[in-house]
């Protein structure tokens, strides 16, 4: 069986291509950053995959101490996006138990759930406001979160020394937070980066006016902040540097570009914290999220200023909001522009046969990948 499987893996024809597609699809389903040929984060076949031939063959190889060497890292690359894969710091039992929920939250790396200084586990609400984490009504800490908290922290907050030492040189791991939805017009508690207003360079406010974006200013009392809470109170100073006197209902109000706002709490959530004035965010994490949003917006503006007029009807600009991902796509698009030729296609697309309703709004597919055609002299 193993010999036949190795022949299948090394096949240069259609069989090898189908095996490649299925391996990549299985890697996505099992939610692992490394190709399954290199590492399998399971001791046994998950029940939902018990009849999967490829997975059973891989486990058979591992159980018999047969290692599979990935000779082509272009065909089976390591997924990028972080330095430490989550599977490297937890055991197979944890990963088998929580893989589905981690995949739902798009969390694959340890970098995604720790602070920028690599000293703390992010608070639950700080994970929920990340742009790629689906919006959920769940406010209670999930089991995958509480379980990993007990595994990698010494006091439910600070990371164990063994975890901190994994990172070595500090790198930026702050993710973009979810954007404020101007269409929903929620009177949210927000944060945004502005070094002109105070030494902390992050401003907290609550949206008061909706048709015209007016924000009530809130101060942060650093002496009452902790690792898990930030103490805020409304600014009552008419002479505050932030005051633009936009409303007679509040002493200190200002306006801001809604695209730079990081929503922290909805109006109903804010009402529930008013007796204590404590929000479940670390002030330094709030700063990191606000600064990241500001930097992305500034970068997006700079990128958009150099885009040619031909991109005014660009599908990337039409479908995606300003973000680092959109900028990356625009850069790829510009790099491929010189190779535009109606007689050829730059990309070759491969599917697992699940493609339906091609060319319609109902088009769907479970697995596919694209590669650059060999007809073009483009670096892969």
Question: Could you walk me through the main structural features you see in this protein, from its secondary elements to its overall organization?
Answer:
With 380 residues, this protein is an alpha+beta fold. It has 4 domains: 2-63, no CATH class; 86-164, no CATH class; 189-298, no CATH class; 309-372, no CATH class. Helices cover 31% and strands 11% of the residues. The strands form 2 sheets. Strands 1, 2, 3, 4, 5, 6 and 7 form a 7-stranded antiparallel sheet that branches. The chain is globular, with a radius of gyration of 25 Å. The model is unreliable at 302-312 (pLDDT under 50).
Which percent range describes the beta-strand content?
A: 5-15%
Radius of gyration of CA atoms, rounded to a whole number: 25 Å
Mean pLDDT, rounded to whole units? 82
Total helical elements = 11
Q: Helical content, roughly?
A: 25-40%
Shape: globular
SSE order? HHHHHHHEEEEEEHEHHHEE
Work out the count of structural domains. 4
Sheet/helix structural class = alpha+beta
Total strand segments: 9
Largest sheet: 7 strands, antiparallel
Cα distance, first to last residue?
34 Å
Low-confidence sequence ranges? 302-312
Tag the structure with descriptive keywords.
7-stranded antiparallel β-sheet; single chain; 4 domains; 380 residues; globular; alpha+beta
Brief overview, please?
The protein contains 11 helices and 9 strands.
Topology:
Blueprint: H1 2-10, H2 14-30, H3 53-63, H4 92-104, H5 124-128, H6 143-152, H7 161-164, E1 189-193, E2 202-209, E3 214-220, E4 230-234, E5 253-254, E6 262-265, H8 267-273, E7 278-279, H9 283-305, H10 315-319, H11 324-336, E8 347-351, E9 368-372
Antiparallel strand pairs: 1-2, 1-6, 2-3, 3-4, 3-5, 4-7, 8-9
Helix pairs in contact: 4-6
């Amino acid at each position: 069986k193993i010999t036949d499987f190795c022949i299948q893996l090394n096949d240069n024809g259609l069989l090898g291509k189908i095996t490649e597609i299925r391996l990549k699809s299985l890697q996505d389903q099992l939610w692992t950053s490394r190709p399954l040929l290199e590492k399998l984060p399971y001791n046994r076949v998950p029940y939902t995959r018990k009849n999967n031939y490829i997975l059973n063959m891989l486990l058979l190889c591992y159980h018999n101490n047969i290692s599979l060497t990935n000779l082509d890292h272009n065909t089976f690359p390591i997924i990028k996006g972080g330095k430490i894969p989550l599977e490297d710091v937890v055991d197979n039992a944890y990963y088998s138990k929580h893989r589905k929920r981690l995949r739902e939250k798009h969390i694959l790396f340890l970098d995604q759930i720790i602070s920028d200084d690599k000293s703390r586990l992010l608070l639950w609400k700080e994970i929920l406001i990340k742009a790629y984490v689906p919006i959920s009504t769940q406010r209670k800490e999930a089991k995958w979160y509480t379980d990993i908290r007990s595994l990698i922290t010494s006091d439910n907050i600070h990371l164990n020394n063994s975890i901190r030492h994994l990172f070595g040189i500090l790198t930026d791991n702050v993710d973009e937070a979810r954007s404020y939805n101007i269409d929903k017009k929620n009177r949210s508690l927000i944060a945004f980066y502005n070094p002109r207003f105070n030494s902390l360079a992050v401003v907290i406010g609550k949206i008061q006016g909706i048709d015209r974006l007016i924000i009530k200013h809130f101060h942060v009392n650093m002496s009452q902040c902790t690792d898990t809470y930030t103490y805020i109170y409304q600014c009552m100073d008419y002479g505050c540097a932030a005051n633009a006197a936009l409303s007679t209902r509040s002493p200190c109000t200002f306006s801001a570009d809604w695209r730079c706002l990081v929503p922290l709490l909805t109006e109903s959530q804010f009402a529930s914290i008013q007796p204590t004035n404590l929000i479940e965010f670390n002030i330094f994490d709030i700063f990191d999220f606000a600064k990241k949003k500001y930097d992305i917006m500034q970068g997006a503006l700079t990128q958009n200023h150099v885009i040619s007029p031909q991109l005014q009807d660009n599908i990337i600009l039409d479908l995606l909001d300003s973000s680092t991902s959109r900028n990356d796509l625009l850069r790829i698009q510009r790099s491929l522009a010189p190779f535009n030729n109606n007689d050829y296609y730059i990309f070759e697309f491969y599917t697992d046969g699940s493609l339906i309703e091609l060319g319609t709004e109902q088009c769907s597919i479970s697995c596919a990948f694209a590669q650059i055609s060999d007809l073009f002299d483009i670096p892969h």
